[in-house]
Amino acid sequence: MRKNFTQAGTKSADMRTYIEGDWYHRGIPANVITGPNVYIDTSYGFAAFNSLQPGALFIGEASGCYDRASFIAAENARIQVGKYCILNGTTIICNDHISIGDHCMVSWGSVITDTWLPVMYSIEDRQALLMKTGNDPLRHYPFCNESKPVILEDNCWVGFGAVIMPGVTLGKGCIVGCKTIVTKNVPAYAVVTGSGEKIVKYLHPTDNEETIKN
Amino acid sequence: MPPSSQIFYPLMPGAKVPDDWFAGSIPLNIEVGEETVIDSSFCFKHFFSTLPAGLRAGHHVTLWRTAISTEENGLIEIGDYSYIGNAALVCYGQISIGKRVMIAGGVTIADADFHPLDPALRMADTIALSPVGNSKNRPPVSAKPVIIEDDVWIGFNATILKGVHIGAGAIISPGAVVIENVAAGITVAGNPAKPIN
Question: Are residues A56 and A35 in contact, defined by beta-carbon separation less than 8 angstroms?
Fold first, then answer.
């Protein structure tokens, strides 16, 4: 069993938590709250976690953030991760709100974002956004003002390199194939893949309380 | 400034990046404008350019977790106020990025195939690249400059391949694989990328 965050982390005078043996040295901000037995590989993924909200990120019981799983969060971002989730080298980019249910698996190179809306922006707006970022001494990520919350219901599986776009809800038990760009809601237990995010099949909803107990 | 909030430092030729997690330094052969910043010397892990300037970056550029990778004769140009986050620029000859270009996470931009297509030449390349080989014996590869004009936005996990010219103000949707030119001001998506709307 891996050493969990509570065992391996030490809270420092700056209120950040430093993980024992971490190759990246900046630690994890105080407004990241974890349930029991949560595992975090490295604080590297929290370098751009700039949310000022109390309890901005909650990671539920026995979930793991592996490899360079990253949380890029703006001042007002709130992110919720459920129990027994596997976030393996995924990037979560949050301006407002992203919610991930229990037992979700999200693979390497995938992105979950609530803000990618340049189509709605004029060139002048985009120019202004980048000029503002370039003149910000901390160079916070150039978030668009508008964002649409993203929800992953329980037991979703997101393949590597996939992108879950703003406003999307992934239904319970669904699977998103690798490199699929998801721009619209995915029904529960659907399997979506490829260009145009086609539903290739539906799975049997076997994940009820009875089957988990057995 | 507490270390927790400052993750960017001025990009200076030949310098060490303060508080760097990677034990490297910034190459000498780069030209950089004022107020251009980077997070780590790791970005230059595969920077092999021997040109007098293998990277020419303008002012107020932000480079975060981005691979600035070049072969011997590679030149990467990045215009003022461009923001590149967690991307890979892989350059054999030339990659030119304009002003106020936003490149999101997971993007790859490559101006060459980096290996020959021909099967026999590919075999020869594996030998030349091996620990017992001589990289001077590598067969020629096909490369064509990539040009990205001002005010282009490139979405998460998109790929821009050799010879592509992207016109000013175009938007490359997340996940798009761009293999042909994109006209100014339009939006493309898909693999291969096609105009949408």
Answer: no
A4 or B29, which is more confident? B29
Judge whether residue B81 has pLDDT over 60: yes
Q: How far is CA A6 from the centre of its chain?
A: 21
For A171-197, letters b (16+ CB in 10 Å) and e give bbbbbbbebbbbbeebebbbbbbebeb
At residue A213 the predicted structure's pLDDT band, cuts being 50, 70 and 90, is: low
> CA-to-CA distance for A173 and A208, rounded, in angstroms?
11
Q: Which of B6, B153, B174 sits opposite A126 (nearest CB)?
A: B153
Torsion, Cα A92 A96 A101 A102, to 10 degrees, reads: 60
Q: CA geometry: angle at A49 spanning B36 and A75, to 5°?
A: 90
Q: Which residue from A115, A112, A68, A65 is spatially nearest to A92, judged by alpha carbons? A: A112
Q: Is the pLDDT of residue A44 over 90?
A: yes
* Strand boundaries in A29-178, DSSP class E: 32-34, 39-40, 57-59, 64-66, 70-73, 78-81, 86-88, 91-94, 97-100, 105-106, 111-113, 150-152, 157-158, 163-164, 169-170, 175-176
Q: Is B173 on the interface with A (CB under 8 A)?
A: yes
A133 contact residues in B (CB cutoff 8 A) = 62, 81, 83
Cα–Cα distance, B135 to B131 (Å, whole number): 10
List the structure tokens of A52: 């000022």
Please state which of the ranges A5-19, A39-53, B93-107 shows the lowest mean pLDDT. A5-19
Contact A160, A179 (CB under 8 A): yes
pLDDT given at position A62: 96
What is the ipTM for the molecules in this complex? 0.91
Helix, strand or coil, per DSSP, at residue B82: coil
| Amino acid of residue A146 | E
Distance in angstroms (rounded) separating the CA atoms of residues B153 and A116: 10
Using the Cβ of A133 and the Cβ atoms of chain B, whether some distance falls under 8 Å is answered with yes
Share the mean pLDDT of chain A: 93
pTM: 0.94
Calculate ∠ Cα B98-B100-B105, nearest 5°. 95
Q: What are phi and psi of B42, to 5 degrees?
A: -60, -25
